[in-house]
Amino acid sequence: MEWKIDAAHSSVDISVRYLVSTIHGRFTGLRGPIRLSDAAAGDTPELLSFDAGFDVTSFDSGVPMRDRHIRSEEFLDAASHPEAKVRLVSLAKDVPPRYLMRVELTLHGVTHAVDLVADTAGPVTDASGIPRVGATATGRLKRSDFGVTAFQGFISDDVEFTVNVQAVPASVPDEQLPPAN
Q1: pLDDT score recorded for residue 46
Q2: Cβ(85)–Cβ(105) below 8 Å
């Protein structure tokens, strides 16, 4: 069955060590198609594929000056690389409903494989009668693998991230979904 990411209820959250504390940030506007297996009522469908993207200019840490710096040429260069892409490469079912997956992440114009652990949920029907499925995936990457090397020694090379996704059937008109910021 074809589904699509509900951008208003999905995000990519990151955390990275800076000097003596951890800084958190979020990318919004995650969007794209998802293919799930057909499943009996009440059963969680299996993930078959996805191909998603998010707007790099949406980065928000709650500190506008820092956000501008992270989006600048020195870090993510959002003007030259405004979209990050994520594509499923391989998938192994762990203990249901958990998956071990490898994705291709394109960020800052560089594509690398990244491993994730994902837990799935649903389907459920929301208050508007729209079916929903969801997943939360976690992983870690090295920012230097993507050519983001500014302030090494002050900012950790390791970036932890969590991807939160809610999806609805692709047939649901966009105007029935809340607008994404």
Answers
A1: 84
A2: yes
Q: Strand pairing of 47-55 and 33-36? A: antiparallel
Contact assessment for residue 10 and residue 166, using Cβ atoms and an 8 Å cutoff: yes
Stated pTM of the model? 0.91
For 68-97, the pLDDT digits (tens) are 999 999 999 999 999 999 999 999 987 777
CA dihedral 44, 98, 83, 172 (to 10 degrees): 10
3-state secondary structure the chain: CEEEECHHHCEEEEEEEECCEEEEEEECCCECEEEECCCCCCCCCCEEEEEEEEEHHHCECCCHHHHHHHHCCCCCCCCCCCEEEEEEEEEEECCCCEEEEEEEEEECCEEEEEEEEEEEEEEEECCCCCEEEEEEEEEEEEHHHHCCCCCECCEEEEEEEEEEEEEEECCCCHHHCCCCC
Q: How far is residue 135's CA from residue 120's CA, in Å, rounded to a whole number? A: 4
Instruction: Single out the residue of 140, 150, 176, 165 nearest to residue 4, CA to CA.
Output: 165
